[in-house]
Structures are given as C-alpha cells and as structure tokens.
Design a protein that fits this description.
Elements lengths: L10 H7 L5 H11 L9 E5 L5 H6 L5 E6 L2 H10 L5 E5 L14 E7 L7 H11 E18 L2 H12 L3 E3 L2 E2 L9 H6 L12 E9 L13 E5 H8 L3 H9 L14 H12 L1 H4 L9 E15 L1
Parallel strand pairs: 1-2, 1-4, 2-3, 4-5
Antiparallel strand pairs: 5-10, 6-7, 8-10, 9-10
Helix pairs in contact: 6-10
Length: 302
C-alpha cells in the first residue's frame, strides 16, 4: 500500500490514534481456531501487522509469531513498541511468503485492517501452501463509523472524506485520494472476496453495519471517545495523507497555518451540532460513541 510510504504518513500517529481491538474479537477468532494443548509447537502469522498490535495480543497463545508488513516504517514502529523476543517482525507481503515460512508450517494466519489490499490470486495459493491441515485464517477490519447521536456531524464527515469536488469554498474533498480498489473492497466489508472451497472449509463471516443492534461477536468495535480523539483519528486516514501531498500549501492550524481540509471539516461538524458549538474552544472535550462497520472472515484448511 503506497500510503504508508508517503512522506506525509506518520506510523507513530497511526499507532497512537487508531482504535485497538477488544478482547471479544480475539475470543471469537481463537475460539474458532481451537487451540491445541499448550505443549504443542504452534506458529502464528500476522499479515500486514502494522505497528504490531495483533502480534503482541496473540503472542501468549503461540510458541512462535511471525509478523510481516510491506511498510518499512510500520515494521520499525512495531519493533520500537514491542518487547517480546517471541515475535519476529519482518518486511514482507502476503502474496509471497516463501522467504518466511515453509510448506504446512503455520497454525493460524491473521490480518487486521489489511486484507482489503491483498491480491487474492496469489494470496490464496500462498496460504494454502503454508497452512497446516486444520489450521485457520482470520481476517478482520473496520470502516466508516458513525458518531451515535451526532448523525448530522457524521453526514458532514462523509461529505468531506468521500467528496470529489469542493466540499467547502476552495477546499477539495478527500475522495480522490483513497487508494482503490482497496477502499471500496473494505467499504463492502470484503463481501467481494470469495474463500475458495478447494482448500478451505468451515467458512464463517460476521458483519456489523454501524448503528445496528448486534452482539459483541459482530459489533466488536464501539468506543466512547472525546471529540479531540476522533479528530486525531481522522488525521490518520490514508486519504488525508494523499490530500496533504496534493495540497502542500494548505497548513493545518496546529502547524501555524490557516487550516487544512480536516480543520475545515471539523468546523462544519461543530457547526452542525449546537451542543458542541456551545462549548466554544472546549468542544474537543465532548464525548461520543464511535460505532464502526466491521467484518470478520474465518476459514479452516482442509
């Protein structure tokens, strides 16, 4: 994914402001996997590991953890944040695992918020080659959350994040700067990705559309956040990194400028919510429930 190689992308900010994964999600994927006795030699493969969040969370359940990511900046950040000799972070891609794992050597392969970038014509072959019989895969991700009780602000965010023309006077929307087709695949909760039946069985899909009343196995990413935290999160969007590259003259207010697309977006969001506007400069202290759309895809090697 080219976004993580851009000079405007910050792996440190991504690690700081992206949401974490709850224990309920890990219970779901580990329950599906059905861990063997503790004495067994087990290997976890974390594909698109980012800053190492998943590798660190699942490490206690495996004897060996290999975590790969195509971004050297992400791998460096993961190593910096991790104090676990069991985890081996390497730069690598899902489409070619030959340098990292041999045939039938992986017990479980996971990918969080990365599987929408895979070239599945190569990935399914690689996973079929490297997975042990009975081993499992679990891919999951999140997209396009809503701010519950603040639907008008959510609509403004949607306009700025996906707009292709001026979304405010002289301000271009961020829509053109999403990398495709990955973003649309993610927005479709990976329904377009078919798990091939020749090598995989027990295929299970769990989906949650934001705002629906689902259990924690489906609606696993809801979080109470201060608006200041949500603002910082929006600055980790890959489309924002692309927008900044295209508009180097637009400096954020935090950088001493007149404001960039995120600043303007939040101006309009605050304007849409009288209770936030009434807080004046303290609006960042207001709290909301952020409810993301989510998916989990799990399958077992025949």
């Amino acid at each position: 994914m080219a976004t993580f190689a851009r000079p405007t992308f910050s792996a440190k900010a991504y690690a700081a402001f992206r949401p974490t994964y709850p224990a309920s999600l890990f219970r779901t994927v580990l329950g599906f996997h059905q861990l063997p006795p503790a004495a067994s030699e087990t290997t976890l493969l974390d594909i698109g590991c980012g800053h190492g969040l998943i590798a660190r969370a699942l490490s206690p359940h495996f004897q060996c953890v290999l975590a790969i990511d195509p971004s050297s900046g992400m791998v460096e950040q993961a190593r910096h944040m991790t104090n676990d000799a069991k985890i081996n972070f390497q730069r690598g891609r899902a489409e070619d695992l030959s340098a990292f794992v041999g045939p039938a050597s992986v017990d479980m392969a996971v990918s969080g918020q990365a599987a929408h970038w895979f070239d599945y014509s190569a990935v399914w072959k690689e996973l079929a080659r490297t997975m042990k019989p009975g081993g499992t895969i679990a891919f999951w991700g999140y997209v396009d959350g809503v701010l519950k009780g603040a639907e008008r602000a959510t609509e403004v965010m949607e306009k700025f994040v996906y707009g292709f023309s001026d979304v405010a006077p002289g301000v271009e929307g961020m829509g053109p700067y999403w990398e495709q087709p990955g973003r649309n695949i993610l927005r479709g909760l990976l329904r377009s990705v078919d798990v091939p039946g020749d090598h995989w069985k027990d295929v299970t899909r769990l989906e949650h559309n934001p705002g629906e009343q689902d259990g924690e196995d489906k609606a696993w990413l809801k979080k109470k956040m201060k608006l200041g935290e949500v603002e910082a999160y929006t600055r980790t969007f890959s489309c924002y990194s692309g927008w900044k590259d295209a508009h180097p003259e637009a400096k954020s207010r935090a950088e001493g400028g007149d404001g960039d697309v995120i600043d303007v977006m939040w101006d309009h969001m605050i304007e849409a919510m009288p209770e936030w506007k009434a807080m004046g400069e303290q609006w960042r202290e207001a709290e909301v429930i952020h409810d993301w759309g989510t998916y989990v895809i799990m399958a077992r090697r025949k």
